[in-house]
Amino acid sequence: MPERLKPLLEANRQWAAEMERKRPGFFTRLAQQQNPRYMWIGCADSRVPANEITGLDPGEVFVHRNVANVVVHSDLNALSTIQFAVEHLKVEHIIVVGHYGCAGVRAAMRGMRIGLADNWLRHVQDVRLRHRKRLEHLPAQAQEDALCEMNVIEQVGNVALSTVVQDCWARGQPLALHGWVYAVTDGLLKDLGVTMKAPEHVIPVFGAAIKRYPRPPAATAGSEDDSTFGPGVVPAP
Ligand code: CO
């Protein structure tokens, strides 16, 4: 056992003892069944731990994390996790949570090459390309922050359009999708106003959320109609 890992195991023993002291039978009950109401889809970033920042205990939030909180329609890992959460655990809320200062989003915005992840972050670059008229006129930091938020909005749209969620809504199972962004600088979460609870919400809620990032007047003239917006729709270059 490397010396550096010993404190982790010691802290674990103290934590488990403290939990059992404060709430006798906690682990025995948890061992029977997990019954989370929430699913969290977040960035793998070590500064954004789902349970801690929402005050939730083990058993209360089902978590999927990857680089830059991306939900791709062909990603069997994410889709399987969403399916298990929706069909077996029957979570009532799926929350996509991005964060400001996301290294993945920054790399995508600047076109930095960082390795294998470039192919993954291509999805975030696609978000930037899709909404470039709403981003490019902003100062660099504001542009990066807006892309962190827009990436969340796009991923909520992707979750909504997944077969798992479409089927869930079609059979009348209650499920709400949400998009939040977290600030590592003050520990606070912000709701991005992209909550969707039914198939008919997807296009109008997505469109309204994206329109909160206005294009400069010159770019608005003669450009495509906003009402055609939907998740994943790429306007002509
Ligand atoms: Co990140």
Write structural notes for this entry.
This protein is of the alpha/beta class. The protein has two domains: 1-32, no CATH class; 34-220, 3-Layer(aba) Sandwich (Beta-carbonic Anhydrase, Chain A), CATH 3.40.1050.10. It has eleven helices and five strands. The chain has a five-stranded mixed β-sheet with strand order 2-1-3-4-5. Helix 3 links the parallel strand 1 (38-43) and strand 2 (61-66). Helix 8 runs antiparallel to helix 10. The chain is globular, with a radius of gyration of 20 Å. The N and C termini lie far apart (55 Å). The mean pLDDT is 93. Residues 43, 45, 68, 99, 102-104 line the site of cobalt (II) ion.
From the structure above, extract its key features.
single chain; 237 residues; alpha/beta; Beta-carbonic Anhydrase, Chain A; 5-stranded mixed β-sheet; 11 helices; 47% helix; 13% strand; binds cobalt (II) ion
| CATH architecture group name of the largest domain | 3-Layer(aba) Sandwich
Our count of domains comes out at: 2
Tally of strands: 5
Biggest sheet: strands, sense, closure?
5 strands, mixed
Q: How many DSSP helices?
A: 11
Shape: globular
Fourth-level CATH superfamily of the largest domain: Carbonic anhydrase
- What class, by secondary structure content? alpha/beta
Distinct small molecules bound, one entry per kind: cobalt (II) ion
What portion of residues is helical?
40-55%
What is the CATH class of the largest domain?
Answer: Alpha Beta
Numbering strands along the chain, what is their spatial order in the largest sheet?
Answer: 2-1-3-4-5
Mean pLDDT across residues: 93
